């Protein structure tokens, strides 16, 4: 448990610029909050541990390889050959690289077809790997499969890494049965055997899809091949069980990690456990596991402290929230945008506009850039406080600062309109949201439908319900 035996401090914490704070108080009529808190968490941090143990990564450099320098006499020949190459070499390859970097899969495939038509083209494993990974991330597993088959037709030998990339493409699209077919195909090829990466990707897909019946099957297959699950694999399963409410299975995995010599918990394990119990509001279990993992030797990081701040803030435990912030300062952990966002959100939820605004001004005073979540919290906070003219001001400020207006941002503005009882403005914002091609989500429709229900506008509710079903929002 977090103790409370430490020096008292005040919150928010001043940044040392006393003139700045005086000006804020004078201009905005805001007095610094005065609740007193105490501090205690754990000890200083140590270097981060590696997520993958040595020898697990499929990439391996031979001990016999050397870094011999190219003989000087060959340099001129290489430069001459490069100068005589078709100018398309750089143009097309750069266009392909750019398309991959910005995740434009369709354009990347078009450029790749152009590249193959050039006389200098030679098929390379690395090019196919980049394209298959890109197609997987963009939800195009069929195109990835076509490219994989094409690669084999061009004479390139498949590798475990390439098969794993193809398997990952199907996993990302939740086509788990197809992914298992690829796994079975890998098993029949001596040079393409699945490794810990392959099984970890498949395990994550099963957990994300709540197909927990397959998890034990994967563990069994790994055991048959003497492949030990690593910490990343176990963290994935741990998080999946927790999100699904399978806490008995989650604790079983966690205890096995604590007893293991090869798959020990790390700071990601700690963050996962704290988030799961914190989001449930089970502060006692969260603190118990924090202490237990600290005693195991795991050092917290900035994200760990931000998780604690967020949980304490949501549960109105402002003293502990402030204690964690002070402890971060003591250990020289920087307050990040996420740190400030969690504090602002804590005050936003209860409509405490004064403390929320004070924290935001301090955030600006320390040169910390606000992001979309910052403005979402400010908008909701002013709406909860009934200060609706400041909602409009914050929206204008977000526009001036070129803050990314995503679905969450529009949902916050819609929430503000509903709180103000301005359904006409709400409809205008919803229309603008569509014009900006920002896809509404379940929260969007929930906010608007509740507003219409209060006004007994059943026809509007019905229309929104039909629209929601039409675009596939659950």
Explain how this protein is built.
With 474 residues, the chain is mainly α. It has helices at residues 18-28, 72-84, 88-101, 105-116, 125-137, 141-153, 160-172, 176-187, 196-208, 215-224, 231-243, 247-259, 267-280, 283-295, 302-314, 318-330, 337-349, 353-365, 372-385, 388-400, 407-419, 423-435, 442-454, 458-470, and strands at residues 9-10, 36-37. A two-stranded antiparallel sheet has the order 1-2. Helix 3 packs antiparallel against helix 4 (105-116), helix 11 (231-243) runs parallel beside helix 13 (267-280) and helix 17 runs antiparallel to helix 18. The radius of gyration is 27 Å and the shape is globular. Mean pLDDT is 83; it is low at 1-70 and 85-89.
Produce the secondary structure layout.
Layout: E1 9-10, H1 18-28, E2 36-37, H2 72-84, H3 88-101, H4 105-116, H5 125-137, H6 141-153, H7 160-172, H8 176-187, H9 196-208, H10 215-224, H11 231-243, H12 247-259, H13 267-280, H14 283-295, H15 302-314, H16 318-330, H17 337-349, H18 353-365, H19 372-385, H20 388-400, H21 407-419, H22 423-435, H23 442-454, H24 458-470
Antiparallel strand pairs: 1-2
Helix pairs in contact: 3-4, 5-6, 5-7, 6-7, 7-8, 7-9, 8-9, 9-11, 11-12, 11-13, 13-14, 13-15, 15-16, 15-17, 17-18, 17-19, 18-19, 19-20, 19-21, 21-22, 21-23, 23-24
């Amino acid at each position: 448990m977090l103790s409370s035996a430490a020096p008292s401090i005040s919150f928010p914490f001043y940044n040392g610029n006393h003139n700045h704070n005086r000006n804020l108080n004078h201009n905005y009529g805001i007095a610094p909050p005065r609740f007193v808190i105490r501090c205690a968490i754990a000890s200083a941090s140590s270097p981060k541990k590696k997520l993958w143990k040595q020898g697990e990564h499929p990439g391996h450099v031979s001990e016999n390889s050397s870094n011999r320098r190219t003989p000087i006499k060959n340099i001129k020949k290489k430069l001459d050959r490069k100068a005589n190459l078709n100018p398309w070499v750089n143009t097309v390859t750069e266009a392909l690289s750019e398309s991959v970097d910005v995740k434009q899969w369709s354009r990347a495939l078009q450029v790749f077809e152009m590249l193959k038509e050039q006389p200098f083209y030679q098929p390379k494993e690395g090019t196919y790997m980049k394209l298959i990974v890109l197609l997987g991330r963009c939800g195009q597993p069929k195109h990835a499969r076509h490219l994989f088959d094409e690669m084999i037709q061009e004479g390139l030998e498949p590798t475990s890494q390439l098969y794993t990339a193809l398997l990952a493409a199907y996993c990302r699209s939740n086509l788990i049965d197809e992914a298992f077919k690829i796994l079975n195909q890998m098993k029949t090829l001596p040079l393409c055997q699945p490794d810990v990466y392959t099984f970890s990707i498949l395990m994550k897909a099963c957990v994300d899809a709540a197909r927990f019946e397959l998890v034990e099957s994967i563990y069994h297959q790994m055991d048959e091949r003497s492949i030990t699950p690593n910490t990343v694999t176990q963290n994935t399963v741990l998080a999946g069980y927790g999100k699904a409410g399978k806490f008995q299975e989650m604790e079983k995995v966690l205890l096995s990690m604590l007893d293991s010599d090869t798959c020990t918990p790390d700071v990601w394990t700690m963050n996962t456990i704290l988030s799961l119990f914190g989001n449930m509001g089970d502060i006692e279990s969260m603190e118990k596991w924090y202490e237990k993992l600290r005693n195991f030797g795991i050092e917290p990081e900035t994200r760990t402290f931000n998780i604690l701040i967020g949980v304490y803030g949501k549960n109105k435990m402002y003293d502990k929230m402030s204690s964690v912030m002070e402890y971060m300062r003591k250990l020289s952990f920087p307050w990040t945008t996420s740190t400030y966002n969690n504090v602002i959100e804590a005050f936003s939820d209860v409509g405490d506009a004064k403390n929320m605004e004070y924290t935001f001004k301090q955030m600006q005073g320390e040169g910390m850039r606000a992001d979309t979540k910052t403005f979402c919290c400010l908008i909701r906070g002013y709406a909860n406080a009934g200060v609706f003219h400041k909602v409009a001001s914050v929206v204008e400020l977000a526009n001036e600062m070129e803050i990314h207006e995503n679905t969450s941002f529009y949902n916050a503005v819609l929430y503000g309109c509903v709180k103000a009882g301005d359904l006409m403005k709400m409809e205008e914002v919803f229309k603008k949201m569509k014009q900006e091609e920002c896809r509404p989500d379940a929260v969007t429709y929930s906010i608007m439908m509740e507003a219409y229900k209060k006004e007994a506008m059943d026809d509007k509710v019905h229309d929104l319900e039909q629209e929601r079903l039409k675009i596939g929002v659950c």
